[in-house]
Amino acid sequence: MHSNGHRPAPAVAVSEFTEDIVGRQAITGPRYRRAMVILGGLFVLGVIGFIVRAVTDGFDDRLPWGYLAATAGYLLTTACAAPLAIIGLRAIKAHWRRPLARLAELYSLGTVVVLAIFVPLMFLIPSAVDRRTMYFQSSGTSGLPGTLGRIPGAPQAYDLALLIALVVAAIGLVWASTRPDRVLLGNRRGVHRGRWWGSIKQWRVTTVGIGLIGAIYFVTLIGFNSMYSLDFAMALVPGWKDAIFPAFQGITALQGGLATVIVSMYVLRRFGKMERYIHMEHFWAASKPLLAFCLLWFYFGWSTFIILWYGRMPVEQNVMQLLYFGPYSVFFYGAFLLCFVAPFLTLLWNSVRKSCLGPTVAATFILIGNLSDKIRLYAGSWSVPNEVITDHALEVVPAARYPDAFDIMMMAGGIAGAIFIVLWMARRVSIISIWEMSEGLRLRVVRPFLRTHVSVLGKPE
Amino acid sequence: MQQRVALPHPQINADLLKNVLKAPAWYWGIMAFLGGVVIFGSVLVAYLLNKGFGLSGAHRPVMWGILIVDFVFWIGISHAGVMLSAILRLSKAEWRRPATRAAEVLTVFSLMIAALHPVVHAGRPWRIIYWSFPYDFSRGLWVNIRSPLVWDPSAIFTYLTGSTLFVIVALIPDMAVIRDRTTGIRHNIYSVMAMGWRGTPRQWKLQVVAGFLLSALLLPVFVSVHSIVSWDFAVMIGVEGYHVTIFAPYFVIGAVLSGVSAVVTMMILMKWMFGWGNYIRQEHIENLAKLLVVIGTGWLYFFFVEFIFALYSLESQEIALRELQAFTWPYWPLALVFIFLSYIIPIPMWMFPGVRRNIRIMFWSSLVVNVGMWLERFLIIVPGLARKQVWTFDWSTYHPSFIEVMIVVTAYALVFLLLLTFAKLFPLIPLFDIKEGDILGDEIVIGKRRVPALRVEE
Amino acid sequence: MAQMLGLFKEEEAEAAANATEALERAGYSNEHFEVLTGSPYPEGAFGEREVKHKLYVFPFMGALLGLSVALLLTSATQMAYPLIVGGKPILSMPAMTIIAYEGTMLGAILFTVMGIFFESRLPNPSPGIYDPRITAGYIGITLTVSDDRVNAVDQLFRRAGAADVVIQR
Questions:
Q1: ipTM of this model?
Q2: Is residue C22 a part of any domain in this protein?
Q3: Number of A–B residue contacts, CB under 8 Å
């Protein structure tokens, strides 16, 4: 034991852990059922909101759909981004990822909800011809320099293709990482799946495969996030030219993804009774990169702001009005406060970081702030009318459009849908990865070292 | 892959203090050569300052030539040290141990040398005092804090002060080791520098906490320094290609790529020069190579976005600048060399374990990254200024003069000279860190396999 | 009074830990003795007392001071020489923020380093009994005893497995 009284968490036997998790899989508690019903209900409400919006407003005008676009952006940078943290930690072989890995990976299936939202949204985006997009295409009559001529389907078809690739990668990631556990749980139920028997070769292929699919998911998510933020936000606002914006969205994804993991981890520990496997050390470890991501959020935001502020070009000033200090300023200040100021001031203190609640509170701030950020970016850019979309500059800053009941239904439905998928899947595969945790339990022992106790962590490669 | 061999402390002391206690003959030969180059370069600088900056190749519209390119380059190199050391410390990466000190020292010296470039470039260096610092002399003239040229010195000063103190704090326990192994005046000097260090639990605890705390404080400073350097360019609206929001992180990640590559080059040189094969092992170089693959790919993303956004604007001047940078003589061959050396050759190579484990290949491939990254800075700075603009009446291509080229060469020699001087006075690998690594090493037995393990305080 | 230093070989760390226990049994609490090592060991490895420090306070103090000085400097100089440049206000907060940030960090770093020295009790011109073998891997246990107990403590160290015992009167 340390002289300050802190002793490493005791080691748990692999068999004991396995039996515990397998036992939990057999029962679905009433609280769990209630959560699923509520989430399912919210999702249905979202679908109703969507139908009403489609019937009343149609698909001719983008303005009423801005909040749905923000919802897709939000899911991309929170739920869908949750696996990024685990993919990164797995790459550096951090042991503390193990109890969180499955939970985070299941969130990747939130991409299915994004796909469902994306399909109707893409019909609201005009063709890329004769306007600033990444496709540089001209009808030949606009007099724009250096463009490539018509590219069929741009931008929607290419964004859709990338999103489908992302969904496939998500399914592949979940399939590969849950395979050993599905077989184990199947065997316990008397269902024998013939093609997995856990040979050395199979384990090798599985672990390498998860690493590769994870890398593909990582790159594809960052890529799609970049394209979505460009085609569904920046390119809709004349004069908005911000090269850092796609990367900024990448940072918000890393921040929001980790925040999603932390909040879910707290729920799992508190309500899922997983205190034996999820310790304060997990929150403490996760809080450090979360603090770094808060600083990076500010850094990337500032890098845009200082250039636009310093340049004082009229074309940039109007964009700043739209996105920062004009009609959507309340959402900008909300994002600034909740994505940077509040979590930074919370996580600055080691005593707060070194607790289960502290990082969770900071992560909750971030999840709310991220939504505020997406509203200012997407609702803001979707409020620019089609008539001015090919202009060089935004001459008139459009007024804000605040969400109505149907917007709120769609947003809540989209978010609930992503969580519902996680809960639904968690009944089919365990919410904690049995094989990955077992591997970790084998590689960690608590030993006496002279007059203290230390954890000994194995590093096989 | 772990090849750690726990060595007794006396052997660690003897190995790592070899050059401090008795330098070999070749060491003095190299020092004499580098000293000669530095003296020659200093004479040229004095001549330049005496005759005026007209002796350089800079003239309208290209008033920022290779001295500014070299300034950005060395600022970039300075980023590796603290970044590498701080991130690896904070993440408690075990393989950091032999790399931290060298990386931190590289930061300090390259930052010093970087800061010298704009001083020389100013032509009348003494004026920098009242351009950059709040210094009045009763004339009522104060610096313009809205200028990034004032932001720069404040950032560099903070970074240089912080990284120097970082090195000094971590040197104290090693000073005690040298103190205990020297006699006479050297013993007295090292005794003063060791400050009465005895190795009490309080001193060690504070040493460890200091490592984390200073790392956490220096990381945001290191990011700010190159960001501010990038804003020297990016806040300008008059030069196409400069006014780009992504410049700050793009410069930072480029700096990290070149800096970490420089650390790899330096570590291999240390291994060869001082025979530190037991300390700088294959696994360290391999891990750094893996890190470089990630950093390099991140850099490529930023490079791609930066380039593509110039086209995104669909403005003829921006597109013309990209044509000049990538397709027009004399810049296109440089652009080709730059992208091949910075990314296309080394990064895919480093994806293969066989290459990562080959020290010779790693040496040369990490070296060429910095050739490429130097050219990158050249291609950002010079073509943007050289492009003919509407209100540019006096216009021609930039050619660096002999004096400028020699100043750049001298900068390299000076950094190397300072590093070797440091290696004579202090250990380039922290002794206590290596010893701690040995103490914390352990094993876990799983079946017939003995898995290398690490004792950690959770 | 005499200062004593028991020296234990690197590979006999267990003996050093035994010696601290023996000292405690002999009536010396862990506030009386100090363990000296050539590299950091996990805290509490020799049963030594927990190290309390307030290092974390120093960067906050420094940061506050640095921020105040930077804001004062940037605002006062601009007001003393009020020249509008590039259409920016005299007190340009974004520009001031950058220098204020550097000032804050500089203050935090300087105070942290001062804190490290202060909390480490360095520099220490009279550090007490010491032996160069400590930096060669030996583990030292040092304590101050009355003259009449020197022999007893010497025996205690040697019984525990000390390679040498240094006594300074």
A1: 0.93
A2: yes
A3: 124
Q: Is C154 in the B-facing interface, judged by CB distances under 8 Å?
A: no
Distance of residue A168 Cα from the nearest chain C Cα, in angstroms: 44
Asked if residue A3 belongs to a domain, the reply is no
Q: Give the separation between CA A71 and CA A51, rounded to whole angstroms.
A: 16
| Domain total in chain A | 1
Residue whose structure tokens are 């500059």: A393
Task: Judge: A451–C94 Cβ closer than 8 Å, yes or no.
Answer: no
Asked whether residue C61 falls in the same domain as residue C113, the answer is yes
Instruction: Please give the pLDDT value at position A3.
Output: 43
Report the pLDDT value the prediction gives residue A405, as an integer from 0 to 100: 96
C61 with C116, same domain? Answer: yes
How many domains is chain C built from? Answer: 2
Q: What is the CA radius of gyration of chain C?
A: 26
Structural domain of C97: 57-120
- Nearest chain C residue to A452 by CA distance is C45
Q: Which of C13, C44, C94 shows the shortest C-beta gap to A2?
A: C44
Domain contains A7: no
Q: What is the C-alpha separation between B128 and B119, in angstroms, rounded? A: 7
Has residue C125 been placed in a domain? no
**DSSP state letter for B140:** -
**CB-CB: which of A132, A134, A454 is closest to B456?**
A454
Sign of the alpha-carbon dihedral angle for B88, B92, B93, B95 = positive
pLDDT tens-digit readout, B64-98: 999 999 999 999 998 877 888 888 888 888 888 88
Chain B residues whose C-beta is within 8 A of a chain A C-beta are 1-2, 90-91, 93-94, 220, 223, 227, 231, 234-235, 237, 243-249, 301-302, 305-306, 308-309, 311-316, 319, 442, 444, 446, 449, 451-458
Q: State the residue range of the domain holding A192.
A: 14-457
Q: Examine the domain organization and report whether C81 and C67 are in the same domain.
A: yes
Torsion from C-alpha of C96, C101, C103, C105, nearest 10 degrees: 180
Residue A394, SS3?
Answer: coil
- Specify whether C113 is located in the same domain as C69: yes
Q: Is the domain of C145 the same as that of C161? A: yes
- Measured distance between the N- and C-terminal CA atoms of chain A, rounded to whole angstroms: 29
- Taking an 8 Å cut-off on Cβ atoms, the answer to whether A459 and B94 are in contact is yes
Residue with the two structure tokens 């956004």: B309
For residue B158, which phi and psi values (nearest 5 degrees)?
A: -65, -45
Residue of A305, A310, A450, A453 to mutate, testing the C interface (most C Cβ within 10 Å of its Cβ): A450
Note whether residue A234 is domain-resident: yes
Domains (range + CATH), chain B: 9-454 (1.20.1630.10)
H or E, element range at B69: helix B66-90
Question: Is C59's pLDDT higher than 90?
Answer: yes
> Would you say residue C153 lies in a domain?
yes
> CA A363, CA C135: separation in Å to the nearest integer?
45
